[in-house]
Amino acid sequence: MAAPNSSSSPVDDPAVSGFVALMTISGQAQQLLKARMQDTTLAGLGPLHMHALCLCQQQPGAPQQALVQALGRDKGQMARLIRDLEDHGLLTRNTDERDRRVWRLYLTPEGAKRSAWFSALEAQVAQDLMGHLSPEDSEVVGRVLQSVQAKLDELNNSL
């Protein structure tokens, strides 16, 4: 890794300014999503809860570990999130028939309804934020973000 150039500011580095922009945009997008959720979601549940619910809808009966991997969170955080979803009557956890150490996750009917609502809300926010981009620009953004995600996965796997 090259040493930073002492004559220039770190923000002059395109990697640094791009990272700062990505973090800022991500935070602001989360805030927008949270604000739009305020009137219609259950108290105490945020976008991460709802995203987890959507993942469970896409993969009924997936093990709890699949959420840990898909969301990049630690086991403790995911256990609390799953407990919150259970407490709100949106998700059930059942032990695997073959391996009692594995928990399988299933949506309740109310969870399926909330998942559909959140998917529609997320799609609307995505359209509001990204809909002005040309198809070509959208593809470029997607490729760049996939590349960043792959590098992040690589770095996290090396920890």
From TrEMBL:
The keyword DNA-binding applies. One of its GO terms (biological process) is response to stress. Signal peptide: none annotated. The lineage of its organism: Bacteria, Pseudomonadati, Pseudomonadota, Betaproteobacteria, Burkholderiales. GO terms for molecular function: DNA binding; DNA-binding transcription factor activity. Keywords: DNA-binding, Transcription, Transcription regulation. The keyword Disulfide bond does not apply. This is HTH marR-type domain-containing protein. It holds the Pfam family MarR. Residues 15-150 form the HTH marR-type domain.
